Structure prediction request, 1389 residues.
Amino acid sequence: MLIHPDHLFPAEPSTRKIAKSLYEEIRTLPILSPHGHTQARWFALNQPFSDPAQLFVQPDHYVFRMLCSQGVSLDDLEIGQSTATNPREIWRIFAHHYYLFRGTPTRLWLDYAFQELFGMQDRLSEENADLYFDSITEKLHRPEFLPRALYDRFNIELLATTDSPLDSLGDHKKIRESDWNARIIPTFRPDPVVDPEFPEFATNLIMLAEQTGEDTSTWHGYLNALRSIRARFRELGCRATDHGHPTARTANLPAVEAAQLFGRVSAGKSDAQQSELFRAQMLTEMAGMSLEDGLVMQIHPGSLRNHNRQLFERYGRDTGADIPTATNYVEALRPLLDRFGNERNLTIILFTLDESTYSRELAPLAGHYPCLRLGPPWWFHDSPEGMMRYREHVTETAGFYNTVGFNDDTRAFLSIPGRHDMARRVECSFLAKLVAEHRLDEDEALEIARDLTYNLVKKAYRL
Amino acid sequence: MLIHPDHLFPAEPSTRKIAKSLYEEIRTLPILSPHGHTQARWFALNQPFSDPAQLFVQPDHYVFRMLCSQGVSLDDLEIGQSTATNPREIWRIFAHHYYLFRGTPTRLWLDYAFQELFGMQDRLSEENADLYFDSITEKLHRPEFLPRALYDRFNIELLATTDSPLDSLGDHKKIRESDWNARIIPTFRPDPVVDPEFPEFATNLIMLAEQTGEDTSTWHGYLNALRSIRARFRELGCRATDHGHPTARTANLPAVEAAQLFGRVSAGKSDAQQSELFRAQMLTEMAGMSLEDGLVMQIHPGSLRNHNRQLFERYGRDTGADIPTATNYVEALRPLLDRFGNERNLTIILFTLDESTYSRELAPLAGHYPCLRLGPPWWFHDSPEGMMRYREHVTETAGFYNTVGFNDDTRAFLSIPGRHDMARRVECSFLAKLVAEHRLDEDEALEIARDLTYNLVKKAYRL
Amino acid sequence: MLIHPDHLFPAEPSTRKIAKSLYEEIRTLPILSPHGHTQARWFALNQPFSDPAQLFVQPDHYVFRMLCSQGVSLDDLEIGQSTATNPREIWRIFAHHYYLFRGTPTRLWLDYAFQELFGMQDRLSEENADLYFDSITEKLHRPEFLPRALYDRFNIELLATTDSPLDSLGDHKKIRESDWNARIIPTFRPDPVVDPEFPEFATNLIMLAEQTGEDTSTWHGYLNALRSIRARFRELGCRATDHGHPTARTANLPAVEAAQLFGRVSAGKSDAQQSELFRAQMLTEMAGMSLEDGLVMQIHPGSLRNHNRQLFERYGRDTGADIPTATNYVEALRPLLDRFGNERNLTIILFTLDESTYSRELAPLAGHYPCLRLGPPWWFHDSPEGMMRYREHVTETAGFYNTVGFNDDTRAFLSIPGRHDMARRVECSFLAKLVAEHRLDEDEALEIARDLTYNLVKKAYRL
Prediction:
């Protein structure tokens, strides 16, 4: 057995018993996945996934960054290639290094998928690498392992992708036009057209003009173009925007200054400070638009992208070299909050890669401002210890009801059930500790468990 | 039952047994409350508290900031009004939202008071809101619920208020002149006359002159005026000062430069940097006076006050919108420590809202400098998880004996027993873990439990 | 009994059972001590240690900083004197204050040595201070307590000292030339000749020239001199360098600029910024040399040395007044990593005094870059809670295999067995929790326990 039925529950017997009983009540609730990075194309085309290397290794930063850290070459993993030429060899390298993942959530997610989806019973190793490869590859080509079948089997009620404003959303349209009845919705992620340092920013503005018929060389036209794209997203079910800026900085410039700044930015003449100021201003503009059109705002700040220069030059973006940085929220969010902080019809969900802000900044802010909610632990912190620290650090100041349930935030579609199961087990373990220490009654804990798994997600994301 | 007899003790049976046995030995020790924000007026006048809304909701930032965060209007809570016109309605709103406090210390403090003081047995809810309101209101008007009777019933040995240098301390005098034998003492909090950014700073300096007969337009006269007020406070039992600056920065300017800076400051001509430098200098001046007159110094830095501009403009200060900021101590305290750090007759108690400084800065500093002690977890961190993190982060470097026991730091008089009880339970739980893991002997744990609850408070605050 | 056989194991019975069974498998593994501050001279001369005051109190910052924090005078402890004139009196002062160490690792290390090495059974106190003093002093003069005998008895397989490039390493030579078969090796710590703010920096450069025959007034000659000393260290078994800069900043200047900067620095004309830049550049230069000669690089940044000015002026360096500071790695290491980050033949071991960087910066960096490894918890954090936090914060992102096992990092030779025993117990306790919660299989935990204790140390330090 790869995964024990009691895994992730506390060892202390009375606490474990409470955790298990809470978990039993939420175990089979449908999955709501309001933020993640799966591809609508998979479900539009419904073609089989080809093999475990291209499914589990190549797209998963968590996996190949660890292999890289121990000297495995990204060339040998064929990172950056559109199709793997030697997937079995990639899989063998991975299997040989599987011990590296001991103690990591990746290991638990993978084992969960291996056991629950593919029926594997022995731990992956160099010896059984081919057996795993062949067995999984064979299954992936069965009808019940096609993307749509898996989606249904996973009991997913809603799945949000994350999309560029320049994306035609053709795959989303195809899904909606099909006879398959699933709720897969886009998320508006405007970084390519609001971040002057984004690759091809100038070209992106031109494409934005083409797509909307607005004159994106003027501040007014540019904002209208963004409004227009947001409307297009909303028509396809979009409920939220997402913003991945280097910092959480916001600004609230007078309209004239904002227009001047846009002039510099759109002319490609902004320096680093001006680009940062423009991103800051755009967060406030986006909040204003959210107040108009009801889209929930997600802010994911603080990742220093492409830290490894050599890898970036050779393989491009997304090579597992994005590194967290210390992030300030208290001063950074103030201009936006000065303007919109007390709006009850606005929801801004804050994320962080800097755990020191949980108790110092985020819980105090979310425990006061009506528009703020705290997103779940993000990225490196989306792990048993990370999720436990999150609850331990934010609950006493912000409570449970200023949080929004779980995000799987994954590119790895097959990890979704395992990730949600892990989150449910950890939430129940945290609640069980409170109950066992008589800090919370068991009936309340059960209600909270359901809220964190389902109700708060629907409410926060307006699903 | 709202509060279980074993609440807050660890679930693991052998550890719980140790925790309970430690707790039994300190449970009934008298309460020392050397720092807080209750009002001497309550005890001077000894009038009944009017109703639960004005007692539990309106004065308690912890309570109404959470309600605000979930969209309750401060108008509906009548925040900022001197007397509530519709206390029953405020109470109903609170009761309706009581579930928001699940998992927070506020919930435990409230339940403690509801059960232990008012005999309530069912959890507060929308349904029983009126029952609660009527029952508590009725009791509050009985003689045994008058402020002095409650003080005695709470087994308080000492209670310190926090007072402006401009306060006449008339209520304190009244208490001392009465036949009621209680030790309620003032604390000298000079922010209104040492912080150039404090509202009405210039007026405050004039009042300071009037009260002392000193010429507060000169540096020399200003310092003498402060000395004079400190003496007046000491005559009424004051044992400590308290300083709530935005940062922990200190300075040690040559006397001529300090006098010049005071010139700018008192003329209302200091910019932000100069104001910060003046506050910094004043911490060092205050340390010097403490060395003269024996008052213990408390430094509470790092709160960014009135973060919510709209609320500040509408309701003024203290609307639950004070937010912690990252705080540096190592460089900031150096000028003061360069001058007074090795004085054995000086006690400076440091507090923080930035938990990342516990193990990195505060414990190493307090584990070295003779004049430094660490205050207990403050404000948002004054909670079961927060108190446990504090001990876990500071003990191994600073030990127990560089800490000073518990502060309730509350405006909510009726929460005092519950707050001290919580602290005692958490301290015993921490100690029990050390004993259960054979990191400490049980006889030593018992001595420490007594020291943290009683002896170290008396020693640190020179009571 | 001072130390319980189960000390430091979790109280929960099933977890404790697993921890003990893991511990039994690694308990008797030999000690590898790849980084520390013992003196080769002790083993070269093999003279008896004189008494417990000079052995346990005077050289141990952990001990005398705590005494100092509670008002004990460093004069009374005869700190700064080469030989104690009144060791018994020092010991009595220490014994009288022994209660201060409750809850600290120092207490556990001391008790371990008292019981396991000297057979003491009663807790040290004022009453038995003389008994302790006499009994330990007597034993220290027995043959089996001479340094070499203790080294053998401690089952040490390797012990690294930390040495100035200007050190003749004569003691190391003497040990190698003796008939005693022990592996005691130097570590190359170039701070005295690469940090322009190091005392006597200019003189040190002259001595460097004398020792190597290189012209250290030129950039080229200076670098060659360093290469030459590194070679001399390697001949005596050195496997690693160590760098104790105020920050982790690195630089990668063009050769011409680096040479110009060295010109200013060697002329004593560099300001604080230039000195910092020079140290930064030297980290990158050292990495380049490590790639040539195979020495592993250790970086110990973030200690603000000699924080207590008065003590520094009176007693000099190392009075227990070095205080941690917030430390940045993500931006600071980038220049070095840009150049060497993907080198698989380079090993850089990172340490920190800023625990907030564990999950935010260090684990993400080490979980990606092939050249990076994470050193164990350092200094104040080398404690049961500190070691547990380290594993909890880094494992899920960096795994176990980007860490390098334990360093005792001690000046207190007799604490080595106790320190390694503590680390082994804490590692087993962490692993036992993972096993008890079914996050790791027991056979894997056992393999990891062995790796952390032995194999990873050998691999990381190339022993």
About this structure: The radius of gyration of chain B is 22 Å.
